[in-house]
Amino acid sequence: MVPMLRQTTEDDEQIILIVDDSPYIVQAVEHTLRPEGFKVRTALSSEEALLNIQKNGLPHLALVDLNMPGIDGFQLCESIHEYSDLPIIMLTAIDDEATVVHGLDNFAEDYIIKPFRAAELVARIKRVLRRMGDFAYRLEPVVFIDDNLQIDFPNRQAIVKQKQVQLTPTETKLLYILIRNAGRTVTNNFLLRRVWPNDDAFEDRLHTHIYRLRRKIEESPKNPHYVISEWGTGYTFIANKNTK
User: Fold this and answer.
1) Dihedral class, residue 222 (left if φ above 0, else alpha if ψ from -120 to 50, else beta)
2) Counting Cβ atoms within 10 Å, is residue 179 exposed (0-12), middle (13-18) or buried (19+)?
């Protein structure tokens, strides 16, 4: 059995990014979450949220309003999911059935209608985080794997032996899912569902992208150090605990 690798410390807090154009809602959600032990970051627009992620790295979960000026909530989710599989909960006043279904089918792990109830909001956040699993490394602008590999998710880059290597959106999202579950086998079916949720994708497609990813981050793609095949099951991301 592959051991669970952790680069985070015991006192690390789970980070929640609140994105809403209402300062009142942002303050109310923040006051609800902080006493529950969450570390909170806030943004009053989608543009501000994207800048926040660029500067501070990805959160563990985002709460996203739908109706915002400029980039709306769905567009924000689409942008974030170009380089990650960040769990998102929609927190919005829109109670239209078609909108709710569209959000759940394409972007969100859950959909909460305003006005929200504090205890229910906390319970739903915790449920999503339990289901998704905690991120296996400290979430920073550039995620440190070891001395030879770091990942800049928002800019879709790997730093391999101090050299920047550009990743495609699919490669970046695959890497995010694998690193989030470092030390655990991620099944082929799970990867297919999360990377191509609206496509009839097959394992050949997945294996092709894994092959291309390995060519970019592995010293020896045929004898990989990071992305290990679990034949007939899926893939496991492994890093050397002693390299940091």
Assistant:
1) alpha
2) buried
Three-class SS of residue 224? coil
133-176 pLDDT tens trace:
777 788 889 999 999 999 999 999 999 999 999 999 999 999 99
Chain-centroid distance, C-alpha 1: 25
C-alpha Rg value of the chain to the nearest Å: 18
For domain 15-132, which CATH number applies: 3.30.700.20, 2.40.50.140, 3.40.50.2300, 2.60.40.780?
3.40.50.2300
CA 214 distance to own-chain centroid:
20
Q: Going by CATH, does the domain composed of 143-243 fall within 1.10.10.10?
A: yes
Structure tokens at 217: 């981050």
Query: 225: buried, middle or exposed (CB in 10 Å: 19+, 13-18, 0-12)?
Result: middle
pTM: 0.86
